[in-house]
């Protein structure tokens, strides 16, 4: 009966080796929402076999972050994945993934030290290390990642290319609530009142898009107006950046195809969002 | 006709995907000697298909090292591999392996910063990165490495385990010249006179073994006598270390199963060797 539940990397790789058809993989930290499920649905369209991993990876959290509070609901996640016809759910524990004496890290330079990497300097090292491990265990033809974590998507694309993983990385569009808030497992941290103010992320991105369409191109001026909007919502800006979506270089002027990304702290919850300027 | 010669990672991985039988892989930097060929012969015994890579990996050399002088003789290497019935020879170039914008490193902590890592701090990072790439391209069942580079063997075993590569790492015994000098591509750098003095590496290891058999166990005393032998041969010691072969912890006393490893500079050539104490 679907999905088959797998706890050990040994069992996962053995099962994988018996599959000769096309495999799609969706790595998650659980607490699944419609954003994850849209990845799953796309994966099901593109491949014969879909494997979802659920693992709250400790190495991508720093000591002062929300590892212990991070929302977990395995039973509900499995129920959702069953409804979406997923074939395998891999949910290893920390002893499986980081046994005593673990010493190896996969690190992407440069593009991991900007944007989210500035305040979370070891975050992407944790992400690339766990994704390397999962790719080696599962060896999928395709891996699906959401564009909400736009920098993460770029970092994993870089890693997969540099280290010659035989897997195609596919980014999928951000899924938003009815009012525009990007779906995130961390939205659960928000109070009803905070939830309203959290809309400032998306509103500020739309503002930038509208200012650009109105003829404004100067990044600093646009970021300044975005900042006002966010500060007026009593939220704290971590960063707002206009950049080239491939090189991640800062752009002094907006142009079609550039990205704007931001991280904002709403009460105690750090949220991220981004859009492509058109 | 064997061996088939492959220049691009794309072709290599395509060929690999068409092979369903057991694959053994021997990574080399070329300039093949009997040490490499013993790995190849063991690989042929253990698997149906044998792939040898020849690639002088620039990222494991530091700026002041011998990258440009490192001996290269691809035609001779291919001739030898043909005689030994190798199936595929993969010899990518630098543009294949490190295209512009390359940013990703695989790093093993701790055991890469001692012994050879002290004077060659980025060496093992280069080794683990290129081996990760080759493992992803070739995805072999087995990889064969020589015990002369004992620390390298341990570092790669750690990496393969930590990152869940689906490959078994097999270490093979050191191959020595008639008089005991460990085979190394760098032996070609030695003058006839230096070649004689280079024997001090193996002689000092045998001395340690004999001192231990004679009842001496104190590591410092034994290292001191080894040092005298090497200095008397007008060679320069980089390090001599007595350590646990698994944890790489320094051992104050020799015991059966411990390793002694050393690096010695003969004229301008840095050579390494090691033995297991029995």
Description:
2 copies of one chain form a homodimer. By secondary structure, chain A is an alpha/beta fold. Chain A folds into 2 domains: 4-172, HUPs (Rossmann fold), CATH 3.40.50; 185-276, Pantoate--beta-alanine Ligase, Chain: A,domain 2 (2-Layer Sandwich), CATH 3.30.1300. Helix content of chain A is 37%, strand content 21%. The first copy, chain A, has 10 helices and 10 strands. Chain A has helices at residues 9-17, 34-46, 74-83, 94-97, 116-119, 123-138, 150-162, 192-197, 200-213, 219-232; strands at residues 4-6, 23-28, 49-54, 88-90, 104-108, 142-146, 168-172, 236-243, 259-266, 269-276. In chain A, the strands form 2 sheets. A 6-stranded parallel sheet of chain A has the order 1-4-3-2-6-7, with helices on both faces. A 3-stranded antiparallel sheet of chain A has the order 8-9-10. The radius of gyration of chain A is 19 Å and the shape is globular. Chains A and B meet through helix 1, strand 5, helix 6 and helix 7 of A and helix 1, strand 5, helix 6 and helix 7 of B. Strand 5 of chain A pairs antiparallel with strand 5 of chain B.
The gist of it:
The structure is a homodimer of 278-residue chains. Chain A has 10 helices and 10 strands.
């Amino acid at each position: 009966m679907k999905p088959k539940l797998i706890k050990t990397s040994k069992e996962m790789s053995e099962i994988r080796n018996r599959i000769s058809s096309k495999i799609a993989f969706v790595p998650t930290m659980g607490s699944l929402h419609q954003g994850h499920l849209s990845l799953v649905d796309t994966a099901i369209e593109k491949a014969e076999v879909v494997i979802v991993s659920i693992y709250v990876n400790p190495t991508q959290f720093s000591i002062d972050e929300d590892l212990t509070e991070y929302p977990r609901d395995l039973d509900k996640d499995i129920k959702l994945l069953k409804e979406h016809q997923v074939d395998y759910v891999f949910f290893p524990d920390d002893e499986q993934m980081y046994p005593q004496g673990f010493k190896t890290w996969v690190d992407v330079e440069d593009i991991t030290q900007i944007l989210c990497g500035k305040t979370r300097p070891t975050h992407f090292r944790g992400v690339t290390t766990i994704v390397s491990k999962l790719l080696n265990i599962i060896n999928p033809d395709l891996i699906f990642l959401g564009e909400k974590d736009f920098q993460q998507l770029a970092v994993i694309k870089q890693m997969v290319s540099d280290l010659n993983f035989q897997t195609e990385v596919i980014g999928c569009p951000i899924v938003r609530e009815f009012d525009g808030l990007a779906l995130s497992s961390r939205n659960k941290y928000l109070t009803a009142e905070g939830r309203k103010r959290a809309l400032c992320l998306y509103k500020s991105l739309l503002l930038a898009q509208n200012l650009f369409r109105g003829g404004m191109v100067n990044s600093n001026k646009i970021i300044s107006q975005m900042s006002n909007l966010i500060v007026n919502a009593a939220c704290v800006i971590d960063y707002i950046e206009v950049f080239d979506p491939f090189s991640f270089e800062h752009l002094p002027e907006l142009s079609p195809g550039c990205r704007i990304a931001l991280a904002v702290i709403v009460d105690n919850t750090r949220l991220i969002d981004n859009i492509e300027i058109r």
